[in-house]
Protein: GDSL esterase/lipase
Amino acid sequence: MYNIAIFAFVTIVLLLVSLASSTEGRRISPAPPCDFPAIYNFGDSNSDTGAISAAFWPTPSPYGTSYFGKPAGRNSDGRLVIDFIAEHLGLPYLSSYLDSIGTNFRHGANFATAGSTIIRQNESIFENGLSPFSLDIQTVQHYQFKTRTSELYHQGNLHVISLKIGIHIFSAKKKSFMKKLSRPQDLSKALYVFYIGQNDVAAGIRKLSFELQKAAVPEIISQFTTQIQTLYQRGARIFWIHNTGPIGCLPVATVKVQDPLPGYLDENGCVKSQNDIAIEFNKQLKDEIVKLRSERSEAILIYVDMYSAKYGLITNAKNQGFEDPFSICCGHHGIGYDVWCGNKGNVNGSEVFGGSCGNPSKVISWDGVHYSEAANRWIANRIINGSFSDPPISISKACQKA
Structure:
């Protein structure tokens, strides 16, 4: 009886080992990272890499000094979140579609423009710091980009064919030009990034009551999703969509507050009503993205909670190596005055210059509205790994269905 028990035990162990070995042999390897050939970005100043500088007014010094050593068309002392995304994916920084000098579009293009909104604003856009390049204009620009690129690429290929049959000499200059063109076949494989909505929320705060702001949100979201649908119909398939950040935590909002009534600021010192509108915008945006997933089964739509990432940094600034989250590195802002970064202005009867602080790497806000490179890096590191994504997937795996 004892020998039979031992035999049975040994038999079971051998069977389990055999099954484990068999399972090990069939184990599915993790899917490799996506090999995105290009990025196409749409947005506002949070991801503008040179549009406003090319179209209207150049970004002044000391913008760009922490990384580029000079103004680089970005509203920061250095790189933006979109720059860190490109780095992470092994792609070069995006050239602005509006920048015609020294641009290279082989790996994508940036249609984001500082001051842009989702809905066209019925106000003096320049007076209020807004851009004429609303999201629908940006998607039209993308269509023009796609159409013209295909034409030029086709012409270039004809020259190559002519060269092969000895009719035309394909010059080195032409080859160099072709290398800067997006390849038509890459458009449907590219990553489409969105980072827009903050200016729509800000415009509502300036013009409307809180209830009217809430009532305006559905139309803003509808316009947003319409442009996503438009890009889908033109071949886009992979969408990485940032929601809007905690606008009530921007220092240009908080430094204007003097003797606030109870409840005006939240427990972390941000303007509560402004953040409430941003939260409502984000909720409705997420709902619509979930709905779009069911309607567009071929699309991959990833919702990225930029609000939570930014708010997490602001509320935990000192533990993350930053100073006061509401301090401003470049420029001077307060009750009754604004001297913007890189400009001169008057404060209490004295002329001052909006220059940079001594150590931008210790501040979250670069100029009161835009984040420093150090903060952008911190935020990018938190969102690209999928920690703030729905579905929870990293940006390097964004081409794969969850």
